[in-house]
Amino acid sequence: MITIKTFVPAVAVAGGLSAALLGFGAAPALADPPPPPPPPALGEPVPAWAPPKPAEVWIGQPVVWHSGWGGRWGVWVNGGFIPLTSNPVTGGG
């Protein structure tokens, strides 16, 4: 004899499996990822008080001015800035 306590859950599970087989449910995420930011290969305008540029290229990357951390010369590699000079304002790192 089938009781209501076993019949209702069995129908619910069967309905869920049927819906999954037919493709109902959560939609797949098909959105394109956002484009990467443009590389800052040209750098920023160099202020008049900036120290001389240490080199034109470093390991194939152009040496550019970056105003962060008080300003310094360095290169952009994989979206990260590698400083090549110390902070000209404080004279330190």
UniProtKB/TrEMBL annotation:
The secretion signal range is: 1-31
Keyword Signal present in the record's keywords: the answer is yes
Q: Which domain of life is it from?
A: Bacteria
Entry keyword set: Signal
Composition bias, Pro residues: 31-47
Task: Give positions of region: Disordered.
Answer: 28-47
The answer to whether the entry has keyword Signal is yes
What protein name applies here? Uncharacterized protein
Report the source organism: Mycolicibacterium rutilum (Mycobacterium rutilum)
